[in-house]
Write a structure and sequence with these properties.
Elements (H helix, E strand, L loop, with lengths): L10 H17 L1 H19 L2 E8 L5 E6 L4 E6 L7 E10 L3 E8 L4 E12 L3
Antiparallel strand pairs: 1-2, 1-4, 2-3, 3-6, 4-5, 5-6
């Protein structure tokens, strides 16, 4: 931690500050991710559906990586395997009794709900 004798303008002070910021981010990664996912849900409510560039399901289709049109990536760990091809994301919300409920449209135009016990939003680089 920066002491009263540490100067953040020096190289050593900047290194210590960088280490503290990295530790702060690491310790709050879950909370930061939750804010990102909730903000995605808010953006979908305000701006409407977001196109999906491609969906990459895992081996048993219960893990899904969704590349969104805004260059972000949504990783879901689903309760049940994905059985449709997704075209757009409609909503994302946290339900205390269920977990993450992700509303989407399939390529056939049907609305589907995906139920996930984990959602991670990876921001655009």
């Amino acid at each position: 931690m920066l002491g009263k004798d540490s100067d953040p303008d020096t190289e050593l002070g900047a290194e210590i500050l960088d280490e503290e910021l990295i530790a702060l981010l690491r310790n709050n990664a879950g909370y930061i991710n939750e804010l990102r996912v909730r903000r995605l849900g808010d953006q979908l409510s305000a701006n409407g559906p977001l196109a999906i560039r491609h969906t990459r399901p895992g081996f048993s289709r219960d893990r899904v990586t969704v590349a969104l049109d805004d260059d972000t990536t949504l990783k879901l760990k689903l309760f049940w395997p994905l059985t449709v091809t997704l075209a757009s994301l409609i909503s994302v919300a946290w339900e205390a009794d269920i977990g993450w409920v992700v509303g989407a449209k399939s390529t056939r135009g049907e609305r589907v709900n995906l139920y996930a016990w984990s959602a991670q939003l990876i921001p655009a680089r």
